[in-house]
Amino acid sequence: MIFGTLGRYIGLRFGKTILAVFAGFFALIYLVDFVELLRRSGDIEEPTRPSSRFCRCCARRR
Fold this sequence. Notes:
It is a single chain. By secondary structure, the protein is mainly alpha-helical. The chain has a domain at 1-42. The protein is 82% helix and 0% strand. The protein contains 2 helices and no strands. The protein has helices spanning 2-42, 52-61. The radius of gyration is 25 Å and the shape is elongated.
């Protein structure tokens, strides 16, 4: 009886810890990838202009 309760408690703690570690790794990977994307987009010398179709579409909505 006690082993079942204790085992469930330890299992839940272990599961939560594993999920927290994976979430931390995924957040770290996402952050590094996002910073790399910002660095690469900062290397572009001239920003791209939106297409004329997009500008006409936005102008009609006003």
